[in-house]
Amino acid sequence: MKRDILYPHSPERVWQALTNSTELSQWLMANDFQPRLGYKFQFRAKPQPGWRGIVDCEVIEIDEPRRLSYKWGGEPGKPTTTVTWTLEAVEGGTRLRLEHKGFQGLGGWLLASMLGSGWNKMLREKMPAVLAGARVAECHAESAGRPWFGRLVGALRRRGI
């Protein structure tokens, strides 16, 4: 899954939104992220049926302010995927590319599809708000609950997908 988006901000500003734990929590999820190679961290959200609300991650590549990659594991014992952020300075701002790869089988395809719509919302609505200086409450007010996501993931897992 790939997503490209242009922001009218410098690569350094976009990098900050990707690597500052406070800013990252404003547009993605609560976390204990630190931009250090090998650092293990978690994203945390409200648990949903079929999902414990935790994503276990590990920084596997960091090249400030151009590239950041981390392993992304939604459930213990399940295959991990890789999230890679690439920043490119362009006229008028920064081109940010998200690559989230490593999904396997039908269940992986379905999960990638679900996550893709979530990434779209985060990158097109929440990240711009944070880059512009919005507060946490403003960014999270719309997505306070997504019970459909947890139910769908739970149903897929119960079917072995």
Overview of this protein structure:
- The protein is α+β, with helices and mostly antiparallel strands.
- It has one domain (2-158): Alpha-D-Glucose-1,6-Bisphosphate, Chain A, domain 4.
- The protein contains five helices and seven strands.
- The chain has a seven-stranded antiparallel beta sheet.
- The chain starts with a strand and ends with a helix.
In short:
With 161 residues, this protein is an alpha+beta fold.
Helix content: 25-40%
Q: Strand content of the residues, in percent? A: 25-35%
CATH architecture: 2-Layer Sandwich
Distance between the termini: 19 Å
CATH superfamily: START domain
- What is the CATH topology? Alpha-D-Glucose-1,6-Bisphosphate, Chain A, domain 4
As for the number of domains, it is 1
**Structural class of the helix and strand makeup?**
alpha+beta
**Computed CA radius of gyration, to the nearest angstrom:** 15 Å
Shape from CA axes?
globular
Q: What's the story with the biggest beta sheet?
A: 7 strands, antiparallel
**Low-confidence segments, ≥5 residues, pLDDT <50?**
136-149
Run of helices and strands: EHHEEEEEEHHH
Number of helices: 5
The average pLDDT score comes to: 85
Which SSEs are present, and which pair or pack?
Elements: E1 2-7, H1 11-19, H2 21-27, E2 30-31, E3 40-44, E4 54-63, E5 67-73, E6 81-90, E7 93-101, H3 105-131, H4 136-140, H5 147-158
Helix pairs in contact: 1-2
